[in-house]
């Protein structure tokens, strides 16, 4: 017996799980296991109904006075019955590109799934509380129940963490504490690597015989805590699991280490209700050390290989980097290494960094293109009508859930620099569509929104307790204009042309001229193209794919073509003159140098 064989330890471990015991609800009875599952086998119209019925049954179990053995058996039967539905919800969420707000059916399904996971986890924790003794003198049956219940909680916590990350939410504090506490309980019994028949379906957690181990699940839970994965795109989140699972010694976890290790390490303890930290908490007796040096070394090696243009998909790199597009590999490896070396940035900036300004934002390729059409229009009536409309105010939602709090749907600037902007808004069911990787057009005030920057939504965080959304935007270009693009073959561009593709001709100070297209366009890399406006045809070539997301592609253009001056948007005075004189083309600003360029030329002469 692995508990009784050890002498009593001086530093006993208290659970502190905070689960309501059945006695708090009063004595209750529960149906037989056969009837319990029969209730879930009835003809139900949708997964939502199944989960609602299961939630009722799981909560009834948790309020009933049962022996630990019967409670464990019923909870396991429920989990086994529900796991295919929960896994299907996770896979469907992983494979779609929905951001915020979620479609109503999806939101209902995922909310119900999270509630069921919480109820099932509470049932297993009741089993541990019933059998656990701080003096660690347990019988063989108690040992087996504690081990199985702890592994079931870790399985559910792993699924819960992935579901919430796919919804841009971190794992709640009670789930972190339960995982840390139960893992330490198993470590004190030297049972963290004992095999248990698995109920989960994730191949990264399973042995060849279908069993799983607490240490394997706990390692991947902690790996997500090392990075702010809930702000990553969905394909990158799965990549982290694959990367860590393919490196057996990427993370080395030890309970109550005898000596402190150097290099990159993280700490947690039995009662910690948050991700691992860079320093150990004071007076933490039941300490867990996470050695990240192996993971950091692998990241450096793969990053160096990419910098030297070595073959990514050869040797061991094939398994580590599987499932990640080649263009995204170096950026994500660089982000991971920076998080290990410098720590994860806070979810939201400090209050003193708030900037009170009239921030405007639109997202999506089509909305961005429509807005730029309006920016360059020479019709003063159309511009005046737009500027006076609520749409041009570009609030996060057309209206608020609460009629008295319409101001909450405005964007609040939390941080702003030349390249990065962090904004926040109140989340409502009327919130405009926001997705990771979406194209964004933004500015401050009427004048700023008429001379907008072009960016990418690079970060979304949903603060569930506050009901707010944090949005991180990376600037991709400081100027853009709508154009039509034709793929050309040879020198004859008048007859041998393909169908036109609606794109954005953009300019960035670092990249120079670039082209932004929808991912549905059929423009291959290195393709010779012709950019057409009403006034001119410009020949160029798609030199390099600089960025690709599910929502747009950004190509660098040939360094020598197009031979255009540094662009600028029409100024307020020029827009007024255009309105009176009837300018012939809204793309005229593409070929005109900005005032700073003219001033430099005058000074040079």
Name some characteristics of this structure.
605 residues; alpha+beta; Thrombin, subunit H; 6-stranded antiparallel β-barrel; 6-stranded antiparallel beta barrel; 17 helices; 39% helix
Distance N terminus to C terminus?
A: 91 Å
| Biggest β-sheet strands, sense, barrel | 6 strands, antiparallel, barrel
- Alpha carbon gyration radius: 29 Å
- In what range is the share of β-strand residues? 15-25%
- Please count the beta strands (DSSP E, at least 2 residues each): 17
Q: Any idea how many domains?
A: 3
* Mean pLDDT over the full residue set: 81
Q: Number of helical segments?
A: 17
Q: What's the quaternary structure here?
A: single chain
Low-confidence runs (pLDDT<50, min 5 residues)?
A: 1-5, 490-497, 578-605
Shape estimate: elongated
Structural class by sheet pairing and helices = alpha+beta
Biggest sheet: strand arrangement: 6-7-8-11-10-9
Question: How much helical structure, as a percent, in the residues?
Answer: 25-40%
Region (Disordered): 575-605
């Amino acid at each position: 017996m692995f508990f009784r064989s050890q002498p009593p330890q001086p530093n006993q471990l208290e659970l502190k799980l905070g689960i309501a015991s059945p006695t708090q609800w009063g004595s209750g009875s529960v149906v037989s296991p056969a009837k319990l599952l029969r209730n879930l086998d009835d003809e139900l119209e949708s997964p939502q109904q199944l989960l609602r019925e299961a939630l009722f049954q799981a909560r009834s179990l948790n309020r009933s006075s049962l022996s630990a053995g019967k409670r464990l058996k019923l909870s396991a039967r429920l989990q086994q019955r529900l796991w295919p539905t929960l896994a299907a919800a996770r896979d469907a969420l992983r494979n779609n590109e929905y951001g915020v707000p979620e479609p109503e059916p999806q939101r209902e399904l995922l909310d119900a799934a999270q509630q069921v996971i919480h109820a099932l986890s509470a049932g297993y924790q009741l089993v541990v509380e019933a059998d656990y003794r701080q003096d660690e003198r347990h019988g063989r049956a108690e040992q087996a129940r504690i081990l199985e219940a702890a592994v079931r909680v870790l399985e559910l916590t792993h699924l819960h963490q992935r579901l919430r990350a796919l919804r841009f939410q971190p794992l709640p504090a009670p789930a972190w504490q339960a995982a840390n506490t139960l893992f330490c309980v198993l470590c004190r019994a030297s049972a963290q690597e004992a095999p248990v028949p698995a109920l989960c379906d994730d191949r990264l957690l399973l042995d060849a015989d279908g069993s799983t181990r607490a240490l394997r699940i706990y390692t991947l839970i902690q790996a997500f805590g090392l990075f702010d994965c809930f702000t990553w795109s969905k394909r990158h989140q799965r990549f982290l699991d694959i990367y860590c699972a393919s490196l057996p010694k990427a993370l080395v976890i030890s309970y109550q280490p005898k000596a402190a290790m150097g290099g990159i390490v993280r700490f947690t303890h039995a009662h910690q209700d948050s991700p691992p930290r860079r320093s150990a908490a004071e007076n933490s007796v039941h300490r867990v050390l996470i050695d990240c040096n192996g993971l950091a070394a692998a990241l450096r090696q793969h990053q160096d290989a990419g910098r030297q243009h070595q073959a990514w998909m050869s040797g061991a790199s094939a398994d580590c980097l599987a499932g990640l597009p080649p263009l995204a590999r170096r950026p994500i490896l660089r982000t991971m290494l920076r998080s290990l070396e410098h720590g994860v940035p806070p979810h939201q900036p400090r209050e003193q960094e708030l900037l009170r300004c009239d921030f405007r934002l639109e997202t999506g390729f089509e909305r961005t293109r429509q807005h730029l059409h309006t920016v360059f229009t020479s019709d003063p009536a159309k511009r005046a009508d737009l500027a006076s409309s609520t749409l041009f105010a570009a609030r996060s939602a057309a209206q608020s859930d609460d009629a008295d709090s319409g101001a909450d749907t405005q964007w609040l600037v939390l941080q702003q620099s030349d390249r990065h902007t962090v904004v926040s808004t109140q989340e409502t069911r009327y919130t405009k569509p926001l997705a990771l990787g979406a194209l964004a057009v933004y500015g401050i005030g009427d004048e700023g929104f008429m001379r907008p920057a072009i960016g990418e939504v690079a970060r979304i965080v949903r603060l569930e307790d506050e009901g707010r959304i944090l949005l991180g935007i990376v600037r991709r270009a400081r100027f853009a204009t709508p154009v039509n693009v034709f793929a050309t073959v040879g020198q004859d561009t008048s007859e041998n042309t393909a169908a036109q593709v609606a794109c954005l001709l953009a300019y960035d100070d670092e990249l120079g001229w670039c082209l932004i297209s929808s991912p549905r366009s059929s423009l291959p890399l290195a393709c010779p193209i012709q950019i057409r406006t009403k006034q001119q045809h410009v020949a160029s070539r798609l030199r390099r794919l600089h960025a690709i997301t599910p929502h747009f592609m950004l190509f660098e253009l040939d360094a020598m073509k197009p031979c255009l001056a540094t662009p600028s948007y029409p100024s307020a005075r020029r827009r007024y003159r255009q309105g009176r004189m009837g300018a012939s083309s809204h793309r005229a600003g593409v070929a005109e140098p900005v005032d700073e360029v003219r001033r430099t030329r005058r000074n040079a002469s």
